[in-house]
Amino acid sequence: MSLMKERVAELFRAQFGEPAVIVRSPGRINLIGEHTDYNLGFVLPAAVDKAIYIAIGPRNDEAIHLYAGDLEESFTSSLHDLKPTAKQWPNYLLGVADQLEKNGHRLAGFNAVVIGDVPLGAGLSSSAAVECATIFAMNEMWSLKLDRLSMVKMAQKAEHEFAGVKCGIMDQFASMFGQTGKVIQLDCRSLEYTYIPFNMEGIRIILFDTGVKHSLASSAYNKRREECEAGVALIQQKFPEVKSLRDASIEMVETCLAGKEVAVYHRCKYMVEEIDRLQKACTRLEQGDMAGFGEYMFETHEGLSKLYEVSCKELDVLASLARDCKGVLGARMMGGGFGGCTINLVKEDQVDETIAFIAEQYAKIFEKWPQHYIVAIDNGTSLL
Ligand code: GAF
User: ipTM > 0.90?
Assistant: First the structure.
């Protein structure tokens, strides 16, 4: 039995008795295709070997008793009173219960304990992992017979309605559908997906954590989404067939948006380039050309920093230090942005030098050491 499983079970027993179900749901990385999901483009995420663990059990009343083991915090609510709370972490569980109720599943009260080793606020999507763990556990406990895709959609809706982030589908999809050793090429419009083997021979995936957590990240994220929608509305005046930036070409962006509001122009330019870049990067991946793949990652960082403006100085420094390392094949900021981690593809025989160089140079500039995580690609949500 895994240590995490044992620990979450112990914490549950200490308060509530024997858990009915224990579930593991992982955090995710994304190789390329950033902010493309809500523009109905493609993404290339994978689940990792850092996860959220939930132990859950039913109650005989309508009460909800939650305990966050790592924070040592309790929260109590009721099925009659499902609404977002000022404290963030309970929202991921309450939001899922609310979605299930709204989809016609009559729940009973429940007890739940959550722990994990996904770094919080680091851009590895711990929130999606909690949502997926919760819905998967409830599906098992009450035999709701939901398929994985329905659970992903409800988990995403929970994030919209209870966490207030109008996220795309990538994070919940990656957590739920991850497979060891493979990245998921997901078409966020059709939701068709293919697994591409990610050849880790001679390569390590290293995340460097800025430790920066931007308090306005969710409002800035929602603003980016609005700017893309504003761009689509302008393009549609001339090209009504364009339903999302997925359908737009760079020529359309230049014709309809150059000279208009600069933020809208820049967001859309980045987006159309990134959707195209992901396709080219996947071709490199399939050819086994990891250096070529990595070059596209550096380009993505430039676009996210200069055009999409979701980077910050710490992320820019980490990406630029990585550029200076001969052991790094590709690097860029990862996830929503405004803090969190960079993702780096590093040659295995140069891992130590790379970590030492980047950490020392970063500490010289910011007077703090960046955390780093070496991650492996792992399976998605599962019953333990
Ligand atoms: C966050 C969101 F939750 C995802 O849907 C995605 O948009 C990502 O930012 C950026 O690619 O993680």
Answer: yes
pTM to 2 decimals? 0.97
Which residues lie with the beta carbon below 6 Å from any ligand 1 atom? 34-35, 37-38, 125, 167-168, 170-171, 335-336
H or E, element range at 55: strand 45-58
Residue-wise pLDDT for 203-216, tens only, equals 999 999 999 987 66
- Degrees to nearest 5, angle at CA 43 with 42 and 46: 150
Mutate to test the pocket of ligand 1, among 29, 130, 171 (most ligand atoms within 8 A of CB): 171
Q: CA–CA separation, 349 vs 203, rounded Å?
A: 8
Beta-ladder partners of 55: 22, 113
Residue appearing with tokens 């509530």: 16
Distance in angstroms (rounded) separating the CA atoms of residues 125 and 167: 11
Domains and CATH numbers, the chain: 2-198 (3.30.230.10), 203-375 (3.30.70.890)
DSSP H stretches of helix in the chain: 3-16, 89-102, 126-141, 148-158, 170-177, 217-238, 250-257, 262-287, 290-302, 313-323, 351-366
